[in-house]
Amino acid sequence: MIHLPVALVVIPLLGAAVCVLFRRSFIAWTVALAAAWSGFAISILIAVYIMKIGTLSYSIGGWPPPWGIAYHIDYLNSFVLLIVSGIAAVVMPYARTSVNYEIEEDSQAYFYCLLLICLAGLLGITVTGDAFNMYVFLELSSLSSYALIGMGKRRRALTAAYQYLVMGTIGATFLLIGIGLLYNLTGTLNIHDLAHQLAVNNIIGSHNRTLLTAFAFIIVGLSLKLALFPLHLWLPNAYTYAPSVATIFLASTATKVAVYMLLRFCFTILSGGFIFKLTLGKILLIPALAAILIASMVAIFQYDIKRMLAYSSVAQIGYMILGISLATPLGLSAGILHLFNHALMKGLLFMVMGAVNYRIGAVYLNDFRGLGRTMPWTMAAFVVGGMSLMGIPLTAGFISKWYLVQAALEKGWWPVAALILIGSLLAVIYIWRVVETAYFNPAQEMEAESSGEAPLSLLLPMWLLVLANIYFGIDSSIPVELAGRAATLLLGGAS
Questions:
Q1: What is the pTM of this model?
Q2: Predicted confidence (pLDDT) per residue in 8-44, tens digit
Q3: Residue 81 vs residues 86, 125, 291: alpha-carbon distances, Å
Q4: Among residues 389, 362, 356, which one has the least CA distance to residue 374?
Q5: Which among 95, 114, 115, 174 is placed 20 to 30 Å from 252, CA to CA?
Q6: Low-confidence residues of the chain, pLDDT below 50?
Q7: Can you tell me the distance from the alpha carbon of 262 to that of 281, in angstroms, rounded to the nearest whole number?
Q8: What is the pLDDT of residue 25?
Q9: DSSP line for 306-359
Q10: Nearest 5°: CA angle at 435, between 395 and 339?
Q11: What is the Cα 130 distance to its own chain's centre?
């Protein structure tokens, strides 16, 4: 068991090298599939171990922390590991058909290579217990993400990748400055040793200017990375113009890992997240609520459905930050739980977009006319994903929104609870536009002849996420328990 954390990072990195070495599409896809499913199996083993035994640590090269780099896994990162590796395991079977359609054959091996590097970076961020190592893995995943987005078929994919590159680099620079200031203050980069040094030297309660400046840089940098309103400008174009597989994977994982980093810095290093309880929670509450309302309203007026779902993602990130900003056990649990539920619902919805694009060649609203009849299974999947996004009972999205409303009412914040419900009603409007077009508008003759149901290789992964959205809406005991334990751990300080 002790070697499993490092295997999570090593396996996809080796797989990426094999993809480039052979440069054959089928071999690259097979290697990516094996690496993704290996990572998912390891994540399940680690989660079971954490639930039974407790934390799991691994010292790189045998050097003990804080001198060496240590991988440290507890309830929080085991939960995030399940999200990232689980989505990767579902996306890889889907990728074969979609990538064949959207990516030139000569470039497909490089696409799978970049996807595995991105996966390795996200998993590395999640398992590492070293702040600078976390930055290195963030850059690894970001650089591969820029290239993945730039491989989109439309010319604007390059512009979207460049815009993400500029904003992502600014965010990473801010993060690095913050980490450097923390190192200057404490002389260590190990996350748990940072928490220990800040506590024993009474730096936290002294309103130390270096500490406050460090966290100002870190929070702004991570807000750029997780696309918190109004620092979200890179996200709509990136999700819209990236290849379908890249959009599915990044929308379901990348921002979730950035939220995890925010949690790790603000609650583990600062021992219980006192900064959230004092001021930061109230500061982040405003952009979180603005994201829920403004991004949802902007989504209503989009005709490119991938762009509509991208703005919806900005709103959903607002829900996550809202739960975290409450800084209570229930609010934090709701925010962490929404990481999981949003990965399920948005992964499903973008899979539908990939299937529609495969058959129709576009995902504009007018292209959905009559698809309820010509692509019944695909559009049924969209309806389930849309219901989960709206927070309809018996879907996964309902569970986390219910906990968010409870957490807001627990603090007596009735207006916040009302805004959560308003955000869900706005989601009803933009999801209904697509449903109405697909089911109540006739398709043109040429469209009806050219369209048909998506191939089984796209439908099976899609419907696996449909079943997951329904199952975790009925029995959410496992994610709720993991999220609850993670929240308790974070509010109790470093373990």
A1: 0.90
A2: 999 999 999 998 888 888 898 999 999 999 999 999 9
A3: 8, 10, 26
A4: 356
A5: 174
A6: 449, 493-495
A7: 12
A8: 86
A9: HHHHHHHHHHHHHHHHHHHHH-SHHHHHHHHHHHHHHHHHHHHHHHHHHHHHHH
A10: 35
A11: 21
